[in-house]
Please model this.
Amino acid sequence: MSNLSTQPAVEHALAPPEEPKLPPRMWIQKNLFSTPFNSFLTVISTLLILAIVRGLLSFIFNPLRQWNATATNLRLLMTQAYPEEQYIRVWICVAIILIITATTMAAWRVDRRIEVIHLGRHLLTAATGFAIVTLLSPWSVSAKAYWLLISSLLAGIGLTLRRIQGERSVSNLSLVSIALAVGVGSLWVVPYGHHSFVADRVPRILHEPGTVAMSTKLPWTIVLLVAFFSYFGARSMRNRLPAKATKTALVVTWLLAPLFLIYLILRDPNFDMGHVFSTDLPIFLAFAILGSILLVWLTKPTVGELGRIVAAAIIVTGVGSFLIPMRMVVRILLILLGTFSLAAPSFAGGKIARKRYTICWIASAAVLSWLITAVNTPSTVKVPGDFFLGGFSLTLFVAVLTIVISFPLGVLLALARTSKMPIFRLLATWFIEFVRGIPLITILFFFSIMVPLFLPVNMHLTEVAAVVIGYALFSSAYLAENVRGGLQSVTRGQHEAAEAVGMTTAQKTAFIVLPQALRVAIPPLVGHCIGVFKETSLLAIIGLFDVLYIARNVLPNQTAFMGSTRENLLFVSLLYWLFCYQMSKSSQRLERRVGLGER
Amino acid sequence: MDKSEVNAVRGELSESQNIIVCENVNKWYGDFQALDQVSATIKEQEVVVVLGPSGSGKSTWIRCINRLEQHQEGRIVVDGVELTNDLRNIEQVRSEVGMVFQQFNLFPHLTVRDNVSLAPIWVRKKPRSEAEEEAMTLLQRVGIPEQADKYPGQLSGGQQQRVAIARALAMEPKIMLFDEPTSALDPEMIKEVLDVMKTLALSGMTMMVITHEMGFAKEVADRVIFMESGQIVEQGTPQHFFENPIEERTKLFLSQIL
Model:
């Protein structure tokens, strides 16, 4: 076991000798027809699978199916009422996200390779499946012959690839790139048919043969090209830049991007520059400068007890400022500064550590000030309803935001519930047990209807924001219990070892306990995330237009597509499945990766 | 190296100071009294081996010295700092007392190098590069520099225990406590760990060792303390202890293990 961790190639060389491969006939005999009962099971289940597949196929390819309903309304399903003339904003968002993704992939060297022999096997399997589907489908003989020809062509390629000698491999990434390029390229060539939905035209839905509309194929092409260029650009740059700094910068970009994309691009806020320069900016600068001076002093190792008193005083002032009229941004920044001062002794030490801590404070203050300014500035994008997202983008938005908010909250709750301090323990336990005792729908109703009533007169909370807060609180209670399971799996010896080298409780938790606990908790945590993603469909109950609601209640009522419920539901379930499957796949990958140090 | 040479290396042992002082320490688990009026002083650079049957309170005592367990009565003073409920005292004492556990308790999610350098970076506030350099020096000292980038799960028990010793030493402690460091090891790995401990003892480290390795006790210890049912029954030089024990209970214990 010389080099297990660094070289995957070595692992391969060390693998035990493979069992001799049986020829197909022998394999089938050994695994499927070994005993009479086994043969019986094989026959029965084959028939069952064939019947199900045939039923499904004849449903899908039935001429009565209105697949046009889904194809025409893709835009409605994805973004609902976001105005068409503002679509450029969505595309810019997609492009920016793809640029960051591509750069990240290049920086982290995400480029796994797949062996050509395996590729051949996959192709062969795909061709077989394809042929079976073709044979079972209710198509005309000529169509069947056409598709059978294609699958035998695929199988031929697969067989040739399997014959190739030596250990050749191709990069996974180039395969995906080729597939994407072919897909997007086909938009320009293949007449998929064009179902346009134009609001001010009668009839509103027309079937126009030909390739898809320019407003679809052009942005896709541009976005794809942008992604390619940024990947290859980043790849050629990566050896010239310091890897660690690049990665840090990318992580920060990932964290900040949503805050700016949502407000700057999707809302196009109408900033009152006079107000920004006369009020918002000075407040931020004052806090940044005075706060930095304070923190530089507080992180001196010699400050001692006085530092805690100052920190406590700031927090008390911050909380007290809620009782007197004052700008919300000042109150929030005061409390943030108090928290930073309270934590300062843990970061006391060398010059670099102190400098980093101060920079961290300035950055947090800047992000918070920006957010508060952005939230308070009205959007210039006019949308029906009070929110600019609907359909699948609403589902994604709520799910991602809920997970991102509830994750740290859940971890904190779990830590509080296992803490030695009775007040924290009691509060956390009460909160968790209380929230877990209430159905999600009740919470959604409460936050969408009741909470706005409790707010101060001139404070306005979008329904979606209220719902996300409620959903995040709900989800954090369950998440906390999953994390607590992980925390309990960390042995007492680990706690003692960390204490014995003199770590404080905070250091022990951050470096020793949490990493191990979260690793153990990955499977339930991902399961929880999948649940959060799927249960966003409950948003329909409080009147938001999520993708499932549109598919079930909106599309089947369009005059052109009366009663197309089943087609749309099938499509939406495929959409949900794709995302959930990806989540569980990446969780498996994550488990394998962090499992490196396991015994 | 035999005992007389060892003492010659140590030089002016009698002149040095008391670094651990225990006075009438009592501890109960519920109704069970784990420590019963334990009083002992340990001098700087002294190597003390604690012996006793299982359940005799030796582990509890050693864990009280760096406050992994709390004593309920009596005083424990370590390097001039009394162990009370004051957190700052405890953290100060812990960063000066290294501890090696029976089950190693390495951090499984960190590489060997990070295991050793984590505490110096965060507790001693050393720059990372300096801490990692020192970690490599320590790993060299315990004889496994080539394993620095592996995870604990990829090492043998003996190697893991040596990493644990390096981790404790990285904090530059004044005292090292060993809680049965070789009991969880396969026989062929015990020697490599004991060798590291012997070198450490020769370098003048103050050590308290709970062990069942009588060879180690005879060769390295300055003093042997025998405990039973939470009490210190007998103590003395290894020579006295193994050859002319006074107490009946000590004789019985020795007859069972030797």
